[in-house]
C-alpha cells in the first residue's frame, strides 16, 4: 500500500469514533457503517488528513475538495484525535514571530479595514443568523446559571449577569460598544431603566436594532449609531460601559489604546465590563494546525486572540483597575454546541437563505466553525473572560463604605442576590 495511505489508515483505526475514508478513485478504507465519513476528491486532502492539519482539512471541506459526513459532535471527536498535539503549542512562535504579528496587527486594524471585516462576518445574512441564534440574536457566550437552561434562558441570564456586575441603575448613561443585534442594549434599557447608547459597524445590525427601538417605543431613551469606537464623543462621559465580543476585533497592538479610549469615555467612579474570547497560550494570537488560518479566511478576518494576562496588562496601561475577573469557558462551549445543533437541524433552510455556490461555502464554513469552536473551548484551547474594571484608585479611605460616587462595592454578593 502507498505509504501515505498506510499512515491515514492507521490514523483512522485509532480514532475514538468509527471513521471511513473514500479515496478519489472510489477505494474505501474503514468499516462499512461508520459514524464519520471523509470522501476525498483531491489527493492533497489525504496529506492533510495524515498530518492532522485539521484546519487545512476544514478548508478542503469548504472548497469541496473533501466531503465530511456525520454528526458534528462525532466529527469533532475525530478531528481532535487527528491532531498531532496541542494547537496552542503549535501556534507559539519566537520573538521574530511576535514582532511580525505586532506589525501586522497595526496594519490590519485601520478604521476602513475594520469596517470591511465586520461587514464580511456580521452582514452575511440576518435570516441565516436568525436560524440558530436565540430570539434576541445574542451572538456571544451565554451564562448557564442552571445546567438545564435553554439557550434563550441562558442568554437572558448572561445579559442580566452583565447588568448586575455593572450595577446598572435607572437613569444612568450606559454605552454598549459593539452592540450586535441589540440584546444587551435593549435588556439594560427595559429592565434597568438606563439611558442607553450602542454602536456597531454592521449596517444590518444597525438597521435591525433601530427598528426594534422604534417598535418598543424606546426612541427617547435608547439609540444605536453606525460608528467606529475611535470616533465616539468623549465630551459627556458614561456611568457604565460594556464591551461584549468586541475587543477580539480590535487587534492586539491596539488594545491599550482601546481601553484608554473606554477610560476617557467613563465617569470617575464608573464601571467597565469587557467580555471576550481569550487565548489559552500567552504567546499565540491564533490556534495552530491550520485552525487559525481557517477562522481568518472564512469567519473573522482580522480577529486576534490574546491571553488574559496580556489583556489585563493592556487594561492597566490604558488607565483601568481590574476589580473582578471570571472565566466562562465551559459556558461558551455549551453555547456553541447549542448554536451548532440548531444550525444542523435547519441545514436545508440555511442553504436556501444563503443560496448559490458562495452560500454553500459559507454554510460549510459555519458548520465547522461553530462545532470546532465548541471543541476548542471544551479542550481549553481558548477561553472567555469577563473583566470588570474601574478608573484607578485615588487614595480615598472610604471605598468599603459604599460611597454614592463609587460604583464598585468591593463585595461580590450583589452579583448573586435574588433581587435587583
From TrEMBL:
The alphabetized UniProt keywords are: Lipid metabolism, Methyltransferase, S-adenosyl-L-methionine, Transferase
Note the SUPFAM superfamilies from the entry: S-adenosyl-L-methionine-dependent methyltransferases
A molecular function (GO) held by this record is: methyltransferase activity
Which Enzyme Commission number(s) are listed? 2.1.1.-
One Pfam annotation reads CMAS
Q: What class of enzyme is it?
A: transferase
What is one process in the GO biological process aspect for this record? methylation
Which InterPro entries does the record cross-reference, listed alphabetically?
CFA/CMAS, CMAS, SAM-dependent_MTases_sf
Gene3D superfamilies, A to Z: Vaccinia Virus protein VP39
Q: Which family does it belong to?
A: Belongs to the CFA/CMAS family.
Name under which the protein is recorded = Class I SAM-dependent methyltransferase
Amino acid at each position: 500500500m502507498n505509504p501515505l495511505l498506510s499512515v491515514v489508515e492507521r490514523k483512522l483505526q485509532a480514532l475514538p469514533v468509527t471513521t471511513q475514508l473514500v479515496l478519489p478513485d472510489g477505494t474505501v478504507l474503514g468499516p462499512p457503517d461508520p459514524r464519520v465519513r471523509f470522501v476525498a476528491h483531491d489527493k492533497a486532502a489525504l496529506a492533510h488528513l495524515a498530518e492532522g492539519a485539521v484546519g487545512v482539512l476544514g478548508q478542503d471541506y469548504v472548497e469541496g475538495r473533501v466531503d465530511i459526513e456525520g454528526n458534528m459532535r462525532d466529527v469533532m471527536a475525530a478531528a481532535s484525535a487527528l491532531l498531532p498535539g496541542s494547537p496552542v503549542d503549535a501556534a507559539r512562535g519566537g520573538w521574530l514571530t511576535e514582532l511580525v504579528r505586532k506589525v501586522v496587527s497595526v496594519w490590519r486594524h485601520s478604521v476602513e479595514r475594520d469596517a470591511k471585516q465586520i461587514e464580511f462576518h456580521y452582514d452575511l445574512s440576518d435570516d441565516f443568523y436568525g436560524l440558530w441564534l436565540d430570539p434576541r440574536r445574542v451572538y456571544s457566550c451565554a451564562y448557564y446559571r442552571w445546567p438545564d437552561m435553554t439557550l434563550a434562558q441562558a442568554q437572558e441570564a448572561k445579559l442580566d449577569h452583565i447588568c448586575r456586575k455593572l450595577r446598572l441603575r435607572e437613569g444612568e448613561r450606559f454605552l454598549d460598544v459593539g452592540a450586535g443585534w441589540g440584546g444587551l442594549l435593549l435588556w439594560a434599557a427595559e429592565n434597568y431603566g438606563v439611558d442607553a447608547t450602542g454602536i456597531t459597524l454592521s449596517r444590518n445590525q444597525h438597521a435591525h436594532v433601530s427598528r426594534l427601538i422604534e417598535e418598543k417605543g424606546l426612541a427617547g431613551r435608547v439609540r444605536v449609531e453606525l460608528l467606529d469606537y475611535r470616533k465616539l464623543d468623549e465630551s459627556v462621559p458614561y456611568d457604565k460601559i460594556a464591551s461584549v465580543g468586541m475587543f477580539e476585533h480590535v487587534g492586539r497592538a491596539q488594545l491599550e489604546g482601546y481601553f484608554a479610549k473606554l477610560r476617557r469615555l467613563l465617569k470617575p467612579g464608573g464601571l467597565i465590563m469587557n467580555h471576550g474570547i481569550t487565548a489559552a497560550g500567552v504567546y499565540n494570537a491564533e490556534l495552530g494546525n491550520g485552525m487559525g488560518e481557517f477562522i481568518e479566511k472564512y469567519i473573522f478576518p482580522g480577529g486576534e486572540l490574546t491571553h488574559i494576562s496580556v489583556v489585563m496588562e493592556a487594561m492597566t496601561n490604558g488607565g483601568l483597575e481590574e476589580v473582578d475577573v471570571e472565566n466562562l469557558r465551559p459556558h461558551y462551549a455549551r453555547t456553541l454546541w447549542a448554536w451548532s445543533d440548531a444550525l444542523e437541524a435547519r441545514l436545508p433552510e440555511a442553504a436556501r437563505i444563503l443560496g448559490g455556490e458562495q452560500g454553500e461555502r459559507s454554510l460549510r464554513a459555519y458548520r465547522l466553525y461553530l462545532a470546532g469552536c465548541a471543541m476548542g473551548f471544551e479542550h481549553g484551547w481558548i477561553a472567555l473572560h469577563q473583566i470588570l474594571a474601574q478608573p484607578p484608585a485615588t487614595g480615598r479611605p472610604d471605598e468599603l463604605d459604599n460611597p454614592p460616587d463609587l460604583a464598585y462595592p468591593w463585595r461580590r454578593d450583589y452579583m448573586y442576590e435574588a433581587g435587583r
